[in-house]
Amino acid sequence: MYFKKDLLLMVCLFMSMKMVSQVNNINPRWENGFWKARWIAHPTAPGNDFGVFHFRKLIALNERPASFIINISADNRYRLFVNGKSVCTGPARSDLANWNFETVDIAPYLKQGNNIIAATVWNFGEYRPYSQISYQTAFIIQGNSENESIINTDRSWKVVQDSSYSAFPIDRKKIQTYIVTAEGEKVDGNKYVWNFEQLNFDDSKWQNAGQLGYAAKSRTYGTDGNWMLVPRTIPLPEETLQRFASVRRSDLENKDQKDYDAFLSGRSSLIIAANKKIKILIDQSHLTNAYPQIVCSKGTNAEIKMIYAEALIDNKRNKGNRDSIDGKRIEGLADEFIADGSDYEIYSPLFFRTFRYLQLEIETKNEPLIINDIRSIFTGYPFKENAVFKSDKKEIDKLWQVGWRTARLCSVDTYFDCPYYEQLQYVGDTRIQAQISLYVSGDDRLMKKAIDDIGNSFIPDGLTQSRYPSRDMQLIPTFSLWWVCMIHDYWMHRKNDSFIQSHLDGITRVLEWYKQHLGDNGMLGKLSWWQFVDWSWDGIDSIELGGVPPGVSHGGSTIITLQLAYTLKRAAQLMNAYGKKPLADDYAKLAQSLIETTYKLCWDDNKQMLADTYEKKNFSQHANILGILTDAIPASEQQKLLSRIIANKEITQCTYYFKFYLFEALKKTKMGDAFLPLLQPWYEMLNRGLTTFAEQPDPTRSDCHAWSASPLYELLSIVCGVRSASPGFEKILIEPYFGNLKWIDGTIPHPNGNIIVHFENDNGKIKGAIELPAGTSGTFVWKNKTVELKSGKQNVIMNNE
Fold first, then answer.
1. What is the per-residue pLDDT across 469-483, written as a single tens digit (0 to 9) for each?
2. Residue 384 DSSP symbol
3. Contact at 8 Å (CB) between 245 and 232?
4. Taking Cα atoms as reference points, which of 322, 342, 372 lies closest to residue 194?
5. d(CA 624, CA 658)
6. What is the b/e burial string over 709-718, where b = at least 16 CB atoms within 10 angstroms of the residue's CB?
7. Contact, 697 vs 655, CB < 8 A?
8. Angle at 641 between CA 677 and CA 713, to 5 degrees
9. How far apart are CA 288 and CA 691, in angstroms?
10. How do beta strands 184-188 and 334-338 pair?
11. Helix (H, G, I), strand (E, B), or coil: what is residue 737?
12. β-strand 388-391 against 345-347: which pairing, if any?
């Protein structure tokens, strides 16, 4: 996206987005419920090739309206402008059968007289990210009433293809890892359609838009069958100005840190002489998702390359301490802009980038280039940090801050596994992310969308896809099980019967697939597809892909059999709650059978733990964690077993991802005091300069992976001890484990208000103050003692015995 000769537009961009987010939940309504607007596109450009297009329409108003509501969407993506100001971007990603449209009130940007409505619509074709499903390049707007229908898209709209854009593909041979996010872009400012969003722009040489398909003839949210339009259910993304922290390395001469500080704060410019090649390495100081913006003047035909990276690497491709740059270089996604020599050009890529480090590689021609400013616009799902965790250990504050940043960067219009490399909504990651969202923000809308998204991904076999939306199908059957558990998680925290019931058939389909793969010995038999559990295993057991435990290719996997039992138990509760008792009984019976058979065949008396298969050659924390969570291990033995597998470093260890389930086992066995010492790997990440939590221990691909932010949820659910004790979070369990902490304060958002706790250790006595929201009740548990709680404030005092 570009803006020219107007430094205030940047401010308008992020300020306007905050205004629009407040009205995004307006109900779409129009005469007879029909879409009368038409999808439009460039009349001659190929519909599925790489292309960037600008659309415009002039509308005249007799007076400035108090309200002017529109419904808008595009394929692949768009940014809308009204009278030169950026209003919104979208659509929220999904699939063709559930294509999102945004509903916004553009009245604040309109005026009496002539108004220009403009949009940039882009389709990166073969270079689009894997998360982007597409039919063809297209754009649609419909006014929400007859008076607002003057804005409806049809042939009266004007369009031009912007020839300045071309793809700037990722060099995968250089990066040497799996990366499927949006490719870079190269833009020639000499060809760019400057100021197209302004009222006084001359579009007389533009073409009239071509109409696609036909108008809707039903009351469904569809138009022509290619995109079945549905209202956006999540708020618009946040867009907020942020400044870079420092210049870490530069080829410019006669510049000191004071010069760079002034430049980065927007108080001075940098001048690059003619016919020079220079590099400037800029540090944001922390990882971010943002639209970088560079403002430049003069420098005709100067080439400005912007390279983005989470961290720098040395000659062995090691990252080391992320704060260190000595002996390291940058590699990664890049964009390139060619200046046209005008004053105050603002370049920003169409889509946001993820980076801590940004390197400018500039080659000037016969004219000096002035860089007037550089900054970025942070973007992400507008989660609010409504939870609070405080204690006498201040180092936990840094862990909380970094964990929340990790969770935020992995949430935009879907959950992301990681923002830099994939931006795909994987179920295994998403289950953990959703719990963080519920407990830290209290906002369940992205969780609901995620459950719906995955529910839209079923294949005929009866499995969900492992990640969705995605144009590249991938199947991880274990993630279908976690999707079922996500629905149970939601049921335990929110009262929404119709939403839960809409997914009961999907739960049945997943479990039927697994039932068809039961082996003759009563455990799961040979399993197909990628049965990922954790990155703890390299490619083994005839499976080339990593993350797969023993027993998959020939049958008898303890881990996956018990994961199925874990899921069946939750599915049984759901079916019983919604009047499907025979199915509930069937699931409960099968779960118990799997549990008993697995314990009988896989328990090893010598090692006193469950083996990974009935062959008893391999052992892992994972199998025994699931043995505890399913009660395959007798209750009287669970604490001893959990202590053994935590201490035993010879068995296969959980990575950051599966430690979520290790922490769940701590809660179940009332061993929550062991939680805080287990956070040492997270503190080690902080000591290595990470500003978000990584996918797995170094060497790691991704420096930001939301599954590794699980300690946020656990600080609230283990240390503060706050958990749902009944469906809908109507009853609350508070069972704190604060180990050697002297005091803790916690605030946890709840649908009815906030749960607030304060506990302190007073010479062997636990003193506490608890406040529950109206309409709730609960139980406080300390050691073996319980106190019934009611809504409102109450104090608790118990001996520390």
1. 999 999 999 999 999
2. -
3. no
4. 342
5. 12
6. bbbbbbbbbb
7. yes
8. 40
9. 9
10. parallel
11. coil
12. unpaired
Residues near 368 by Cβ (< 8 Å), separated by ≥ 6? 271, 272, 273, 274, 298, 299
88-126: pLDDT as tens digits: 999 999 999 999 999 999 999 999 999 999 999 999 999
- DSSP helix/strand/coil, 539: coil
Phi, psi of 694 (to 5 degrees): -85, 170
Mean pLDDT throughout 481-508?
98
Q: Check if the beta carbon of residue 119 is closer than 8 Å to that of residue 40.
A: no
Q: Give tens-digit pLDDT for 648-682.
A: 999 999 999 999 999 999 999 999 999 999 999 99
Could you read off the pLDDT of 354-384 as tens digits, one per residue?
999 999 999 999 999 999 999 999 999 999 9
Confidence of residue 20 (pLDDT cuts 50, 70, 90): very low
| Residue the block writes with tokens 């220079």 | 278
Cβ contacts of 613-620, under 8 Å, gap ≥ 24: 613/550, 613/551, 613/556, 613/557, 613/558, 614/521, 614/523, 614/556, 614/558, 615/550, 615/551, 615/556, 617/550, 618/549, 618/550, 618/652, 619/651, 619/652, 620/536, 620/549, 620/559, 620/651, 620/652, 620/653
- Residue whose token pair is 């978000």: 692
The pLDDT of 143-162, averaged and rounded, is 95
Candidates 727, 3, 612, 667; CA nearest to 293 is 3
CB atoms under 10 Å from CB of 753, counted, come to 15
d(CA 165, CA 183): 12
Given a contact cutoff of 8 angstroms between Cβ atoms, the answer to whether 187 and 85 are in contact is no
What 784-789 contacts at long range (C-beta under 8 Å, 24+ apart), as own/partner pairs, is: 789/732, 789/734
Q: What class does CATH assign to 2-162+195-232? A: mainly beta
Does 759 have pLDDT greater than 80? yes
Q: What is the CATH number of domain 517-674?
A: 1.50.10.10
Decide: 81 and 109 in contact? Cβ < 8 Å. no
How confident is the model at residue 123, as a pLDDT? 97
What are the backbone angles phi and psi of residue 336, rounded to the nearest 5°? -140, 140
Q: 395 — phi, psi (to 5°)?
A: -65, -20
Q: What is the DSSP string of 588-626?
A: HHHHHHHHHHHHHHHEETTTTEEBSBTT---BBHHHHHH
- Unique residue bearing structure tokens 């003193």: 767
For the cut 50, the answer to whether the pLDDT of residue 410 exceeds it is: yes
Contact 557, 524 (CB under 8 A): yes
Give pLDDT, residue 784.
Answer: 83
pTM over 0.85: yes
Measured CA distances, 795 to 726, 745, 766, 789 (Å): 23, 14, 11, 10
Q: What residue ranges in 108-154 does DSSP mark as E strands?
A: 113-123, 138-143
- pLDDT digits 0-9 by tens, 208-218: 999 997 655 44
Report CA-CA distances (Å) from 140 to 78, 110, 121, 215: 10, 19, 10, 12
Distance CA 630, CA 668 (A): 10
**Given this model, what pLDDT does residue 800 score?**
67
Buried-exposed string 236-267: b where 16+ CB fall within 10 A, e elsewhere: bbbbeeeebeebbbbebeeeeeeebeebbeee
Instruction: For the sheet with 229-231, list strands across it.
Output: 210-211, 40-41, 138-143, 69-75, 99-105, 229-231
Tokens representing 662 are 């290790």
CATH 1.50.10.10 residue window(s) in the chain: 517-674
Q: Which fold has domain 239-380?
A: Jelly Rolls (2.60.120)
Locate CATH 2.60.120.260 in the chain.
2-162+195-232, 239-380
pLDDT of the residue at 223:
57
Tokens at 728, concatenated? 């809908």
C-alpha span between 43 and 53 (Å, rounded): 11
β-pair partners for 240: 378
Give the helix, strand, coil percentages of the chain, each rounded to 5.
Answer: 30, 30, 45
